[in-house]
Amino acid sequence: MFDNVAEGYDRTNAVATMGLEKLYWRPQTLAEIAPRKGMRILDLAAGTGASSVKLREAGAEVVSCDFSVGMLRVGKRQHPELDLIAGDALRLPFADETFDVVTISWALRNVNDVTVALREMLRVTKQGGRLVVLENSHPTWKPFRVAYLEYMMRAVPVVAKAVSTNPDAYVYLAESVRAWPGQVPLAETIGASGWAHVQWRNLTGGLVAIHRAVKPL
């Protein structure tokens, strides 16, 4: 599915999120990661590598990993300087304690087993290293939450039909957002997977949330 939407993926996201992804949500996630020179970062489910570019510009050593070879092909054409690797989040092709930070954006809900994926991220993170997850969440104000879900189910597929190479895929993506757990259940799942000091921060009234955690020493 992601192979088929690769060509227009970044453009469709920009339109569907009305610019919030690029102008607000991504910069806030970048600030949470706080990349710097000498830091090794795994950008998991990196897609075309758009998020990895900013991490690299900050001086970090970045590995961009994604399950979709089609997304990586587009990414390599657009950003040939990136280190792009095909890999499965349930069985990461990296040694134990390799990275200072593992980050995943808008993809944790797409893995077959969230707990297994979180444990794999824990395995490849150094002791004291961090996890940063950006994901759709549950708006904290009920009327806003109802309107948001209505938008996801009705408007996003229409937008995708206009600008995406595979609009049917966005019906699935909208449904996955509706089925995704809220902030507290996700934090509990992260903690149960072995991560410590789990916290989250709502953005845009809980439309999305940044969850963060630390690998115990």
What labels would you give this structure?
alpha/beta, 9 helices, 217 residues, globular, single chain, 7-stranded mixed beta sheet
Helices, strands, pairings?
Blueprint: H1 2-5, H2 9-16, H3 20-33, E1 40-44, H4 50-57, E2 61-66, H5 69-78, E3 83-86, E4 99-105, H6 114-124, E5 125-136, H7 142-163, H8 168-179, H9 183-192, E6 196-203, E7 208-214
Parallel strand pairs: 1-2, 1-4, 2-3, 4-5
Antiparallel strand pairs: 5-7, 6-7
3D structure, described in words:
Pfam families: Ubie_methyltran. S-adenosyl-L-methionine binds at residues 48, 66, 88-89, 105. Pathway: Quinol/quinone metabolism; menaquinone biosynthesis; menaquinol from 1,4-dihydroxy-2-naphthoate: step 2/2. The protein is α/β, with parallel strands linked by helices. It has nine helices and seven strands; from the N terminus they run H-H-H-E-H-E-H-E-E-H-E-H-H-H-E-E. The model has no long low-confidence stretch (mean pLDDT 87).
* Largest sheet entry: 7 strands, mixed
Order of strands in the sheet with the most strands?
Answer: 3-2-1-4-5-7-6
The helix tally amounts to 9
> What is the string of helix and strand elements?
HHHEHEHEEHEHHHEE
* Bulk shape: globular
Number of strands: 7
Poorly predicted regions are none
SSE class: alpha/beta
Task: Determine the strand fraction and express it as a percent band.
Answer: 15-25%
Ends: how far apart? 39 Å
- Write down the overall mean pLDDT: 87
- Using only C-alpha atoms, the radius of gyration works out to 16 Å
**What percent of the residues sit in helical stretches (DSSP H or I)?**
40-55%
InterPro entries: SAM-dependent_MTases_sf, UbiE/COQ5_MeTrFase
Binding site for S-adenosyl-L-methionine: 48, 66, 88-89, 105
Catalytic activity: a 2-demethylmenaquinol + S-adenosyl-L-methionine = a menaquinol + S-adenosyl-L-homocysteine + H(+)
GO biological process, one term: methylation
